[in-house]
Amino acid sequence: MNILIKYGKIHGTVSVPSSKSITHRAIMIASIAYGKSVIKNRLKSVDTDFTVKACKELGVGIDEQGNQLIINGVNGKFILNGKTKNLYVGESGTTLRFLTAISILTDGTVIIDGEKKLRERPIGGLIHVLLEQGILVKSIMNNDCPPVAVKGGFITGGKISVSSDKSSQFASALLLIAPFAKNDVVLEPINLKSSPYLRLTWSLMKDFGIMGEFDNQVYKIKTGTGYKAREMTIEGDWTSASYFMVAAAVTGGKVKLLNMNPESIQGDRKIISILSKMGCEIKIKSDGLEVSGRNLKSIEEDLGDNPDIVPSLCIAAAFASGKSKFTNIGHLIYKESNRLESVCLELNKMGIDAYYDSSQIVISGGKPNGSVIDPHNDHRIAMSFSVAGLAAEGETTINNADVVNKSYPDFYNDLKILGAKII
């Protein structure tokens, strides 16, 4: 599906979809918990559907009732009766990494595979730690990427160090299974990027009854406590909110966002302070978040903990006066696309000077022109450049626009609610 976007200011109110990160984690934890959990307001998207499907195939009872899930947890044990289960997870990196870890809770073998692009995403850091912990696991192609084969067992526990420079999900995956270790676990991520996502995992584990401590990026987990079922409602996604916030910023429009928690521990809430520094007027109200666009100023910001809002903030920078720089973001090359390269290629098409090196991206703001955008099969590139198209001179075409279904199937419908001219 290709779409055409015309210049136009946006205005109105939209309800932001639920957090993708929290939805993945809640489904995984509820699946291995004791008892029946009720997950309300879950995100339904291609990626989260793969997580639901995989857990079902491992024997978890999941009743899907619209945006609500009723999950009957397996209390830390998937029953495969010694058999091998093949699981397909599409292009969902989160599903891949978390599933690799919780698959040790089977009495058989699990093989996890996905699309061609997923087979390029690294998982060696997690595999190597699981091997050190006594688990039989391997990259079938011997390249530290999927497909991955995991034989059930129990990790030893004790002190665990995990390299986290490519993804915090390796550490999150190990945290998820730490309560089932033979001994108490002390988990220490090394060269941690995207630390708020790891804290998010920890917060949900505590909500589901896990005992432990967190201090100075070291996590101490008591073994034997186990997860206990609960009822929860998932809050709005700050990464998804970023597209509408930037849309208001670059078009000079005004939007009100519902379903947002201003006290959220989601790291991408940081976009409030960043856009405020760039000149936007942002008001937090009792019923939502109100964003009004103004003339944008350039900014320099360390986004090592906030990789998912880098593409949308690069669009803001493209329309700002002066040169912006976002640093500590070398790990973006391991996403659905090499996002540093993708952003620069597409901004260059729009007439904006942008370049990157191993750890940063630099953008000289100006007046982007409409262009034909290749999203590089990356949902966040597609959504970010759709926002650019709203304020670019002329018309912008987004090729393969349905890639947004990975995380936000209603994205273009919601843009239209705000008055976007989309054909």
UniProtKB/TrEMBL annotation:
It is found in: Cytoplasm. GO terms for biological process: amino acid biosynthetic process; aromatic amino acid family biosynthetic process; chorismate biosynthetic process. Keywords: Amino-acid biosynthesis, Aromatic amino acid biosynthesis, Cytoplasm, Transferase. Signal peptide: none annotated. Its main location: cytoplasm. 3-phosphoshikimate binds at residues 20-21, 25, 167-169, 194, 308, 335. Phosphoenolpyruvate binds at residues 20, 93, 121, 169, 339, 380, 406. GO terms for cellular component: cytoplasm. One of its GO terms (molecular function) is 3-phosphoshikimate 1-carboxyvinyltransferase activity. Catalyzes the transfer of the enolpyruvyl moiety of phosphoenolpyruvate (PEP) to the 5-hydroxyl of shikimate-3-phosphate (S3P) to produce enolpyruvyl shikimate-3-phosphate and inorganic phosphate. This is 3-phosphoshikimate 1-carboxyvinyltransferase. It comes from Candidatus Gottesmanbacteria bacterium RIFCSPLOWO2_01_FULL_39_12b. The gene is aroA.
